[in-house]
UniProtKB/TrEMBL annotation:
The lineage of its organism: Bacteria, Bacillati, Actinomycetota, Actinomycetes, Kitasatosporales. This is Uncharacterized protein. It comes from Actinacidiphila acidipaludis.
Length: 466
């Protein structure tokens, strides 16, 4: 057993690595050790105080803080963290934000106070550029173009200006504000939790437009979600229903919403006043909606309402920064040596496919964002499952691509998606699609090496194409 002086030395040496290991670690000290029953053992222990943060995607804190460090036992204490700390010129999802409106001859008046939801990009801002707007609720930021937007701490000791209102949409209770150039922008994360894109949870004409794993979870009331609000911090809930239409005469929000239930009989369990504007994410860290309000049942169960994020994007003509550009950037970006990108680039046809993807990726992204017919066809044709299978084959070298998806052959699914693009895409996209579709259609059932051989074997066809 280390001596007391050795224990002090170990604690001071290891506290740096503990802070670096997990952002939930609040402090590290030395104190008396306790056994499993809570009784003192007469030994010194390294006390590790952490936030009991229910944010999804984080491992149990005991998996991060081992029971023993260099022969010294650790004593773990978890404390609550109600809301993100004031960032100070850092636009971060989950922080307090306030909107002001002004009139000639009158001082600014407060429009609303709530939560900064997430950074986003307007049309024309490429994914490799800094997000240029912040998303929250209209009743938080206001509807006056140029209205001042500030961020502040819970003590309201200061109110640095973030930017000004750019655009709002009353039916979705959503608004965006510019970001001043001297502000740091949190991208692809909310309060440190890494995001993984978006999930569609509201049917666009049919259930097939939902992200594939959503409907089974809705049927079984197991679709868990979370949000980080300025008032209540991270909380968890369950999606009760989707396509939730509100009575028009009683509500300004006219967009079918997502209804979220608290996980217990507590009206404040998922959201309170001040959480409006926060974004809701699911258990896979996908953004699903913009929180705008709530109520409670007669027996005290809290209900929260959120507008589907795709509807917010469509109305405000933005793309939320739910993943880093490195994840969603063009496939022609450099890859590690020996990776699938380099393997493709080793053949003429492979380079042609990569170039096609790089040229047309922005247009396809725009179709997914703005074209409801394409979104419906994309999900009906099992586009997400095709992409997931191709990604698994390229990155994890799974045994083989499936020969069929949801009862139809791989080739039929490719043909269905190709037809959707052909009916909505530009002439240049359709031209290149006709060249590459036979290759994609022939990949069903093939393994990694077989897929590369197929691409290499079609080199003459692609070389001959204009």
């Amino acid at each position: 057993m280390p001596s007391d002086d050795d224990t002090l030395h170990i604690k001071r040496n290891r506290q740096v690595s503990l802070f670096a290991a997990d952002r939930r670690v609040l402090g590290v000290g030395l104190g008396g050790n306790l056994d499993a029953t809570g009784h003192p053992t007469g030994e010194l222990a390294i006390w590790v105080v952490t936030y009991a943060n229910p944010a999804p995607g984080l491992p149990p804190i005991r998996d991060v803080v081992p029971p023993v460090l260099d022969g010294v036992r650790t004593h773990l204490i978890e404390v609550t963290k109600d809301a993100p700390e004031f960032q100070g010129k850092r636009a971060a999802g989950g922080s307090w934000v306030r909107g002001y409106a002004s009139a000639p001859g009158h001082p600014d008046t407060v429009v609303g106070t709530g939560t900064l939801g997430i950074a986003a990009r307007t049309e024309g801002t490429p994914d490799d550029k800094r997000p240029d707007v912040l998303l929250s609720c209209r009743h938080v930021l206001g509807a006056q173009p140029g209205g001042r937007v500030v961020e502040f701490s819970c003590s309201q000791c200061c109110e640095p200006a973030v930017g000004r209102v750019v655009l709002d949409d009353q039916a979705a209770d959503a608004a965006i504000a510019s970001i001043n150039g001297d502000w740091e922008v949190e991208e692809g994360r909310i309060d440190g939790v890494k995001l993984a894109g978006l999930a569609s949870v509201t049917p666009l004409g049919s259930w097939s437009s939902l992200t594939p794993d959503v409907l089974p979870a809705l049927r079984n009331f197991t679709y868990g979600v979370a949000k980080c609000g300025a008032e209540t911090g991270w909380t968890k809930g369950l999606v009760g229903c989707v396509d939730f239409a509100l009575f028009p005469e009683n509500n300004q929000v006219q967009v079918p919403s997502i209804l979220i239930s608290s996980t217990g009989k507590d009206a404040t369990a998922f959201s309170q006043h001040g959480d409006s504007g926060s974004v809701v994410i699911d258990g896979r860290q996908r953004v699903i909606g913009l929180l705008w309000g709530g109520s409670s049942t007669a027996d005290g169960i809290g209900l929260t309402y959120a507008v589907p994020i795709q509807e917010v994007e469509r109305r405000l003509k933005i793309r939320v920064a739910a993943t880093s550009p490195a994840v969603w950037g063009a496939i022609v970006t450099p890859a590690p040596p020996g990776g699938p990108h380099h393997a493709l680039a080793g053949t003429e046809s492979g380079r042609a496919i990569l170039d096609m993807y790089g040229r047309h990726e922005p247009e396809v992204r725009a179709l997914l964002r703005d074209s409801r017919p394409f979104v419906v066809a994309w999900h009906r044709g099992r586009g997400p499952e095709l992409v997931a299978a191709l990604t698994a084959l390229a990155e994890r070298r799974t045994e083989a691509l499936p020969a069929e998806i949801a009862g139809r052959s791989w080739a039929d699914r490719v043909a269905e998606l190709s037809g959707a693009v052909r009916g909505l895409g530009s002439p240049a996209l359709v031209h290149d699609l006709d060249r590459v579709t036979p290759i994609l259609a022939g990949l069903g059932g093939r393994g990694y090496e077989q897929a590369l051989e197929l691409v290499a074997g079609l080199e003459p066809d692609l070389e001959a194409a204009p």
